Amino acid sequence: MARSAGDNAQALFHSLRSAYAATPKNLKIIDLYVAFAVFTALIQVVYMALVGSFPFNSFLSGFLSCIGTAVLAVCLRIQVNKENKEFKDLPPERAFADFVLCNLVLHLVIMNFLG
Question: 102 with 76: CB under 8 angstroms?
């Protein structure tokens, strides 16, 4: 029974890997950016757990900056994806301009929260 579950997991991993190989390069770069932002947020959480959270608003600012940036990058990925029929009329340059403008607003709010 365990062997068939392992075979199923391996088949699932192989099918996901082959499907992701067909993903365009620009979407893979956005995926890497999202992974980096989430990884940075996790490092901040581990650091706060080990060292402490004396300036708690600084921790919240850094953590929310990373998570907010990751969410905005996921939105960019959805808009840039050519297979998504909902945003077919939206040019990628417009989607990137929206991403940059929203990041600017996000980080202005974060800087204001820092004090």
Answer: no
pTM reported for the whole predicted model: 0.84
C-alpha neighbours within 13 Å on the C-beta side of residue 43: 8
CA nearest 70: which of 105, 114, 39, 24?
A: 39
pLDDT digits (tens, 9 = 90+) for 23-59: 899 999 999 999 999 999 999 999 999 998 788 888 8
23 φ/ψ sector (left φ>0, alpha ψ -120 to 50, else beta): beta
Report angle CA 83, 84, 88 to the nearest 5 degrees. 100
28-53: buried (b, 16+ CB within 10 Å) or exposed (e) per residue? eebeebbeebeebbeebeeebeeeee
Residue 73 in contact with residue 33, Cβ under 8 Å?
A: yes
